[in-house]
Amino acid sequence: DLFGVSMVVPLLNLHIRSLGASPTVAGIIGSLYGVMQLFSSTFVGCWSDIVGRRYSLLACILLSALGYLLLGTSTTVFLFAISRVPVGIFKHTLSISKALLSDLVSERDRPLVIGHFNAASSVGFILGPVIGGYFTELEGGFYKSSFVCASIFILNAGLVWMLPWREENTSSSEHAQETNSNKVTENFSAKANHDLRFQAEAAGSVASDSPFRSSWIQTAVMLKRIKGIACSDLWDIFLVRFLMSVAILLYYSNFGLALEERFGVKPKLTGYLISYSSTLGALSGFLLEPITRLYQHNTYTVLLHSSILTCTLILLYTSALNIWTVILSSTFLAFSTAVGRTCITDLELRLGGSQARGALLGVGQSVTSVGRIVAPLLSGIAQEFSPCGPPSLGVGLALAAILIMNVNKRKYCGTGNVKLKTQ
Does residue 54 sit in the same domain as residue 137? Predict the structure, then answer.
């Protein structure tokens, strides 16, 4: 998935400019894609809880493939904009895949498996731009890259269709086995169980009803699920995700420009440093097993310590006096951010219960999308004061996230009393 996407994404701005679009138009189209992702991720994630992972994953893969096929035929700015619509709405294959993994593995193994998943995703994103760069040297290289990307998505759809599936709704049995000492999980699970009963009662009539009524029932269940998440006490964990994502985005926002201004580093060396960090981030996913064993599978503590390390490393980068300090901070930051991303996803799923994993992951993705919208604005304002302004602001946001985690320590640690699926 990400191998195909990363062949195309770095070339998008170059291609739309070659079609005659102004920088403003190119920026607007790019922003619209982000806005579509923001609003669709929660609905698509919730939809996957209702109709099943296989059906929703197939639909998202095929509609994304359609978007990249249209991109491969875009000879005008209008066609380019149209091609981004299906991708903007349905390119949520990664979050649905994470929800599927959460369905298949025990809570104890979930951080490890999601870490491996993130590592595979990172490897795809490292290799893709190299192949995309090769295609750009050929005549019609962008169109070839788009068609190859669409072909990869179609291949993925074939794999999803062919692989053996045993999709069961185990939420009720898991809920019966779990003893939730955490109030958040109890409240959310109660709402989710109500939705499951509503869905089960409606399922008998869907087969004989019209497609319109079936879609209406699915929409009603989706809205009830989303309302349940909105009215739950999960705001703090989503706020932690938002603050940490913005802090990291601020660190990278003017990374190349700041290195050039502070240390006279050439863009080529900056590119090598970013690739080095990305490679380390991919390898970090395979270190989660010994880390979780060391922490006795306490996700909260791992997340807290990784956040403290991230905050410290951004502060070290901000106050660096030479390029070697920057390399040192980048080395360990790639590790801490990879571990933090995995742990915060696992903590969201632990707090929210097992009935609405897709919806929870969708909301988390929406929160990150808001961060991607806010971070460039904050970065621009902070750069008015200093090249070190954005990462300095990131340190403050990371400290706020750490404070929130400490204040809500009892809530997070309460999830440790929940019995595991395998028990």
Answer: yes
Q: Looking at the structure, tell me whether residues 230 and 160 fall in a common domain.
A: no
What pLDDT, on a 0 to 100 scale, did the predictor assign at position 224? Answer: 67
Query: Which domain CATH number covers 387?
Result: 1.20.1250.20
Do 128 and 264 sit in the same domain of this protein?
no
Closest among 23, 78, 60, 37 to 364, alpha carbons compared: 37
Number of domains in the chain: 2
Q: Whole-prediction pTM value?
A: 0.71
Burial 65-89 (b: 16+ CB within 10 A, else e): bbbbbbbbebeebeebbebbbbbbb
Whether 149 is in a domain gets the answer: yes
Q: Give the highest mean pLDDT range of 267-276, 315-324, 358-367.
A: 315-324
Cα gap 31→46, rounded to integer Å: 24
| CA dist., res. 325 & res. 328, Å (int) | 5
Among 63, 61, 65, smallest CA distance to 96 is for 61
Do 272 and 342 fall into the same domain?
Answer: yes
Q: How many CB atoms lie within 10 A of CB 216?
A: 14
pLDDT tens, position by position, 334-352:
889 988 988 888 888 887 7
- What is the residue range of 38's domain? 1-164
* 192 in a structural domain: no
The per-residue DSSP string of 158-214 comes to HHHHHS-------HHHHHHH-----HHHHHHHHHHHHHHHHHHHHHHHHTTS-HHHH
Identify the pLDDT of residue 199. 46
What b-and-e string marks burial along 268-306, b requiring 16 or more CB atoms within 10 Å of the CB? eebeebeeebeebbbebbeebeebbeebebbbbbbbbbb
Contact 97, 120 (CB under 8 A): no
